[in-house]
Amino acid sequence: MQTESSTSRSAAATPEDPWGHHRYGRFRPPVTMATAPEPTAPLDICFLIGSLDISGGTHVILQHALEAHRRGDRVVLVPLFAPTAETTDWHPALRELPIATLDEVGDHRFDLAVATWWRTVYELHRVRAARYLYFVQSVEARFHAFDQPRFAELAAATYDLPLSVITISPWIQAYLALEHDRPALLTPNGVDKRRFTPFGPTFEPRDDRRLRVLVEGPIEVPMKQVPETIEAVRGSKADEVWLLTSSSIDDYPGMDRIFSRVPVDVTPGVYRSCDVLVKLSRVEGMFGPPLEMMHCGGTVIVWDVTGHEDYVVHEQNGLVAPTGDYHTIVAALDRLATDRELTARLSAGALGTASRWPSWEDSSASFHRWLRLLARHAQPEAEVAHLVEVSERVAGELR
């Protein structure tokens, strides 16, 4: 049976714009931060998280959780997948914040329970809280659109549940409002301004006579298109290709150098060593690596995926190609390889963008103010009952 919301979602897609990149990319207001006054009493906050493994989305969650902790709140991380020794040393939050299981927090009542992935929404019935929130970093139904339609349906259904929403990009705000009638508060992701700078250690200095390209992302995640990106880059006039990945690998065909599962404080040196980052994801919320590369003095080549419009401006601080167009990507790399003045001009524009972008301190302070604003009023009992009933029922299906 097709509901009203599913009808509107299907109507949003067109053959020319199947992912809605252009439809939602039009919503690009200036970056704004929460400015609500804050209560002074510490909050008790539970962050439900899929995994503590290395990823951009997990990095964002940990930044906000750590900031709340450092501001005096009692914060606990509750991952659905048990952490391992390999997943607990790459971010400072994992050394400062308590980590618990759902069973361990079952009898505790929190001020706020924050779901951070669509599957964590369906575990909220196992957490007692005065108010339930949803931190949305992407339209996660897209992750499963082609290979797991039932998961795509369940992910989309989370946006119709009675949850207060905080998101990271204006396009997601627009999507939730137009397709699900769901308002969302906005806090764009920040950047660590002390760590990501154009000055500092490198693994190898840049060379004006050679174009060194960085590809970033996990090899095994299809929507990140890393193998396809590598193939495209190797078909260009680029002199070297480096890979920065969360995948556990020591070697990959065509790579001149590989950085696998490195801690976050190592990544700036990788960025500073390369001239351009090529990031060709098919699905993103607001991707962080191109922004980090800009802070480290490089430029970027991306597809016109939703979220790129938050900070990548074609021919000003990077180059943008239509999603799926590898020929244009190769041509863009060839331009940078043969026109070093263009590379320098785009890199200078990227540093200008970086200078105007908020820090993590600014971003997490905004996120924290939203938390405190939402914690002022307990969620109506009828909403909680509906949320518990739905999450409990779907959780049974997912197990």
Fold blueprint:
Layout: H1 4-12, H2 21-25, E1 44-49, H3 56-70, E2 74-79, H4 93-96, H5 102-105, E3 109-115, H6 118-121, E4 128-136, H7 149-157, E5 164-167, H8 170-180, E6 185-186, E7 212-216, H9 226-234, E8 240-245, E9 257-260, H10 267-273, E10 276-279, H11 289-295, E11 299-303, E12 318-321, H12 326-338, H13 340-356, H14 360-374, H15 381-398
Parallel strand pairs: 1-2, 1-3, 3-4, 4-5, 5-6, 7-8, 7-10, 8-9, 10-11, 11-12
Helix pairs in contact: 3-14, 11-13, 12-13
What does this structure look like?
This protein folds into 2 domains: 4-190 and 361-398, Rossmann fold, CATH 3.40.50; 212-356, 3-Layer(aba) Sandwich (Rossmann fold), CATH 3.40.50. It is built from 15 helices and 12 strands. It has helices at residues 4-12, 21-25, 56-70, 93-96, 102-105, 118-121, 149-157, 170-180, 226-234, 267-273, 289-295, 326-338, 340-356, 360-374, 381-398; strands at 44-49, 74-79, 109-115, 128-136, 164-167, 185-186, 212-216, 240-245, 257-260, 276-279, 299-303, 318-321. Strands 2-1-3-4-5-6 form a 6-stranded parallel beta sheet. A 6-stranded parallel beta sheet has the order 9-8-7-10-11-12, with helices on both faces. Helix 3 (56-70) crosses helix 14 (360-374), helix 11 (289-295) crosses helix 13 and helix 12 (326-338) packs across helix 13 (340-356). The longest helix is centred in the C-terminal third of the chain and has 18 residues, at 381-398.
